[in-house]
Amino acid sequence: MEAITGAELVRAAALLGAGLSMGFGAIGPGVGEGFAAGKACEAIGRNPDQAGLLTRTMLVGQAVSESTGIYSLVIALLLIFVVKG
Amino acid sequence: MDQIAVALLIKAMYGIGAAFAVGFGAVGPGIGMGMSAASAVEGMGRQPKVSSDLFRIMLIGQGATSTPPTFALVVGILLLFGTGEGTALIQGFGGLGAGISIGAASFASGVGSAYPAAQACEAIARQPHLRRPFTTLMLIGQAISQTPLIFGLLVSFMLIFAVPATPDAGLVEYVAVLSAGICMGFGAMGPSVGSGMAAESAIRGIRYHRQPEAGVGLLTRVMLLGQAVAQSTSIYALVIALVLIMQVKR
After folding, report:
1. pLDDT single digits (tens) A24-61
2. What is the distance of C-alpha B235 from the center of its chain?
3. Which of residues 3-42 of A touch B (CB under 8 A)?
4. Which residue of B has its CA nearest to A73?
5. Which residues of B touch A72 (CB under 8 A)?
6. Which of A32, A42, B238, B249 is the most exposed place for a label (fewest CB within 10 A)?
7. Secondary structure of B192-237 in HEC code, one letter for each residue
């Protein structure tokens, strides 16, 4: 086995960072959006007449909550395709 | 490094991967099945008349919750007995990544699919005449909550069988396959738990509804819409994991 070069080390760290970024970055939005969906279902159960308003609000809230997941995705893609080491 | 040492090292890494898959993957489902049982027992104490219904729904819910550890067990047994003699060190890292991927995904899916099961037991104890919609919603919710688990299983199988065994793979390739497993395993956690929480609250929504039978359709649609959005991050994690696996040159 030959010695590891600096460029290889940087590239390996970038790939590990990509996995960590997307893996852990997916936890928050997943839980948060599910929580929002659940609360919307509860509210529709209590007040079915407002289902349209509640669904719209749920989707807007989930879209905002999704943003951190998209940040993670962008960072992971940057680490894989831009950092060359 | 000579060939015998490499083969032994790969075997050791497969062993650690299998241990992580089954050890970590059994925690969540264990807690989850206990939550269903707790809820059923509480309901039986309150309403002994419906105890046979509660027993049935508890077993159905626990049966669905035991899917994740079964998958983890399959991957664990495959790693221990189904892979044969390894030739390149990258196979060992693939096995380690496969164990992390299915282990973490199973942990979360077990917890996630227990939420609707526990809530269904509680709901049937309070409103036994609605047992049919409660059961349906519980099963749909559990199925969606286990979607990330399927992604985790897919990535595990790819890491075990589809990573090319090139002897000239270096540090970058080793880290890439390990990172793919971490990405998919932990990326599956949030969506699983979130979808389970959504299904739990959808069952509660039917309980609060003035005309529960009429509201089931609407609530199921809203639940599915919300869960679909919550699943998006697990799809991102799948994409990143596949890109990371593709970093290994053939």
Report:
1. 999 999 999 999 999 999 999 999 999 999 999 999 99
2. 14
3. 4, 8-9, 11-13, 15-16, 18-20, 22-42
4. B236
5. 233, 236
6. B249
7. HHHHHHHHHHHHHHHHHCCCHHHHHHHHHHHHHHHHHHHHHHHHHH
Residue B185 neighbours by CB distance under 10 Å: 34
Of A12, A25, A32, the CB nearest to B194: A32
Residue B106's φ and ψ, nearest 5 degrees, are -70, -40
Are the CB atoms for B219 and A44 separated by under 8 Å? yes
- Integer Cα distance of A26 and B192 in angstroms: 11
Whether A62 and chain B come into contact, CB under 8 Å, resolves to yes
Q: Does B5 touch chain A (CB under 8 A)?
A: no
**Share above pLDDT 70 across residues of chain B, in percent, rounded to a whole number:** 99
Mean pLDDT score, B73-100 = 90
Q: What is the domain partition of chain B in residue ranges?
A: 3-245
- Amino acid present at B163: V
Superfamily of domain B3-245: lithium bound rotor ring of v- atpase (1.20.120.610)
- Chain A contact present for B177, CB below 8 A: no
- Tokens 């649609």 belong to which residue? B221
B248 interface with A at CB cutoff 8 Å: no
pTM of the predicted model as reported, rounded to 2 decimal places? 0.93
Residue A1: which pLDDT band, with cuts at 50, 70 and 90? low
Whole-angstrom CA distances from B12 to A6, B64, B91, B164 are 28, 32, 11, 19
